[in-house]
Amino acid sequence: MPKLDSPSHPSSWNPHAQPHPHPHPHPQDHDHDHDHDESDTVSQLQLPPFYSPRPIPVSRAISELDLNSLSSTQSHTTMASPLKSTTATSQFQSELETDTSLPGLVSPAFTPPSTPGASTQRIPQPIVVDSTVPNGGCGQKKPKLLEELPEVNCVVRARIPTTIGGTEMFLHLYQNSEDSKEHLAIVFGNGIRSTSLDRPREGETDMDRLIRGAYTGRLYPGRTSSRAPENEDGESPSGKVIAQKAEEPVLVRIHSECYTGETVWSARCDCGEQLDEAARLMSLPGSGGGVIIYLRQEGRGIGLGEKLKAYNLQDLGSDTVEANLLLRHPADARSYGLATAMLRDLGQVDIQLLTNNPDKVRAVEGPNREIVVRERVPMIPLAWRGKTGGIRSQEVGGYLKTKIEKMGHMLQMEEVSESLQSTQI
Ligand SMILES: Nc1nc2c(ncn2[C@@H]2O[C@H](COP(=O)(O)OP(=O)(O)OP(=O)(O)O)[C@@H](O)[C@H]2O)c(=O)[nH]1
User: Fold this and answer.
1) Looking at ligand 1, which atom is closest to the CA of residue 310?
2) Is the pTM of this model over 0.80?
3) Where is this region: Disordered (predicted)?
4) Which residues are 209's β-sheet partners?
5) CB of 274 closer than 6 A to ligand 1?
6) Parallel/antiparallel/unpaired status of strands 372-377 and 290-295
7) Contact by Cβ (8 Å): 25, 8
8) Is the ipTM above a cut-off of 0.95?
9) For residues 285 and 164, is the Cβ–Cβ distance under 8 A?
10) What is the CATH number assigned to the segment(s) 27-76+138-217+235-421?
11) Domain boundaries, the chain
């Protein structure tokens, strides 16, 4: 039975407490997939005193960063040669191929942002990764994983026509053996099915199956059978369904909930933009579709309330990692075992992962490499690519800088520097 959530943080603080070297994890995350060595991180940090964070405004703190001293060659991707993606869509592929100045594999160089009219419409090139070898393009850290994957069960799915060029997706809602949250799989493509959803339930009727989404083909008024007629082609009169490409790794994004970035227009992070961009790529004609695993681990697993406290600490001068530690949480309290189990349930074992986070690559592969990440597609902020609609703020610049410097995210630092310098609040 799913366990109920319980507060993960003591209600009272010890004003003399230092950031805890082994902070109490989020209840969902007791498998400690994520192996940040917090004690190391804490000892390396020049943390402000608990009750007296740096008494300077965050905007000034960021503008005072020594941007020139930042390494522009930081790289975690050291595979020997760029391999052309086997999975990119025809449009995706042609965008890549026409871009003759595409970045190299090791440290992709991107168009400096913020030059009006200089938009190149580039999209990031997939990078081959291999977690079984050192320097395989996904960091060195071995995540601590549960020995067995959690159980997951897709209880319902429904067709959702989207605002993204009329493309349709199927929203799958899961229950699991680890927590009581409603984790989701957003599936673009008509060939991807959930094994647990399709499994017959004792005593259910065809109408029960139709209502919980365990049908083939399409629903229409008056339909009574959960099995589609043989000749049904899966097209709807109003929507576009992306056809999955057989035998090719599907594009996957594992996304953690961010109420602030996805719902209330926060410019503190790039979460909303990343979700939109993942959906856009999976909606491209010929893309083969894709899966967004949407995990309810708000605030890197510490919950919304604690994240809001962390934002106040950030306004008082801490960065995103320091703020978590000051609140006695890990820098990152997330795990990805549920994502691994959900992807397996959806029949996706070879994947192309949209991420900059090296720990995600290793963690989603699971304790016995139940999933294999074949390629990583970097998530380059739109603003850095000269695209419109990208998030520009001092806060997001500082946030990305910290993710690169302290969390090992595979983005180039010089781009953050340029982005920060050109920021208009
Ligand atoms: N604690 C904390 N969480 C934050 C902050 N800003 C964003 N988040 C959370 O960070 C998470 C971002 O998750 P993702 O975008 O899936 O992943 P990521 O680790 O950034 O890696 P990518 O795959 O490269 O995007 C979400 O759960 C956000 O709510 C912050 O300042 N503090």
Assistant:
1) 32
2) no
3) 1-56, 73-124, 219-240
4) none
5) yes
6) unpaired
7) yes
8) yes
9) no
10) 3.40.50.10990
11) 27-76+138-217+235-421
